Amino acid sequence: MNTPSTLTAALLQMACSADRTANEQHIHEQVRAAAAQGAQLILLQELHDTRYFCQTENPVCFDLAEPVPGPTTERLSALARELQLVIVASLFERRAAGLYHNTAVVLDRDGSLAGRYRKMHIPDDPGYHEKFYFTPGDLGFRPVPTSIGKLGILVCWDQWFPEAARLMALAGAELLLYPTAIGWDPADPEEEQQRQLDAWRTVQRAHAIANGLPVLVCNRTGFETDDSGRNAGIRFWGSSFAAGPQGEILASADTDSTGLLLTSVDMQRSEAVRRGWPYLRDRRVDAYDELTLRFRDTP
């Protein structure tokens, strides 16, 4: 493995339709466009082949799941090999009957399945009924080694937990990547929507800073209805971005744009940043035992 000094990355922010074939075709076209612009890595958003089905609990949606390796990994593997780039994709993994995961997969430049990450933190909120569909991941926080470096893949709700980013960094991740599907309840007032978006950006920039690592975040955009009619739907807020190891914004998309967000990532800066801000050196590992507690109850 030879990590490039500068990495050209592309994030594909898109609105998903109910037509899975059309979504897949759009992704393939955009991956080709990214390769034509020099991308060495492309990050896709969470569950990119379909609409976000977790708005409602519907057993029929389990039919959307597939094995790994399977049809999606085979298609993207051929594309990665042809275009000589790394693809980070997100899919609904069928592991066995009644056992499913929200899984990110990494296809290397030679078309091989470099590795996978199963989402560890599973939300259960209005409009986000993921516990109905997904078993929590059991692969731990382990970076995926690729021809362009060690990629720390985390998925959506994972992005709020500093422990997840830290453990990826401690395991040698050189880049943190977050495929995401997050948006607003249309009933929330504009001020609350802005607070949520600001918090989302801030917490992930903080992961970059606290670990001295670049961060790539790819979110979906567009409005998706709740087919059950129980909720008002979700307006996904887009705003995909890339940040450097001091949290500096390298590139960002707006709420409603669709298409590729390209950025150049200096993969050597983490070394210099960590020398000046040696968080890993000064961690008090002897004093953190209580982090394994759910909560410290006071007497």
Task: Give the tags.
globular; Nitrilase/N-carbamoyl-D-aminoacid amidohydrolase; 299 residues; single chain; alpha+beta; 29% strand
Brief overview:
The protein is of the alpha+beta class. Helix content is 24%, strand content 29%.
Which helices and strands, and how do they pair?
Layout: E1 6-13, H1 20-36, E2 41-44, H2 71-83, E3 86-96, E4 99-107, E5 113-118, E6 124-125, E7 128-129, E8 144-146, E9 149-153, H3 162-170, E10 175-180, E11 183-184, H4 190-211, E12 215-219, E13 221-224, E14 234-237, E15 241-243, E16 249-252, E17 259-266, H5 269-276, H6 279-282
Parallel strand pairs: 1-2, 2-3, 9-10, 10-12
Antiparallel strand pairs: 1-17, 3-4, 4-5, 6-7, 8-9, 11-14, 12-15, 13-14, 15-16
Helix pairs in contact: 3-4
Plain-language structure description:
This protein has 299 residues and is α+β, with helices and mostly antiparallel strands. The chain has one domain: Nitrilase/N-carbamoyl-D-aminoacid amidohydrolase (4-Layer Sandwich), CATH 3.60.110. 24% of the residues lie in helices and 29% in strands. The protein is built from six helices and 17 strands. A six-stranded mixed sheet has the order 5-4-3-2-1-17. A six-stranded mixed sheet has the order 8-9-10-12-15-16, with helices on one face. A hairpin with a 5-residue loop joins strand 15 and strand 16. Helix 3 packs parallel to helix 4. It starts with 5 loop residues before the first strand and ends in a 17-residue tail after the last helix. The mean pLDDT is 96.
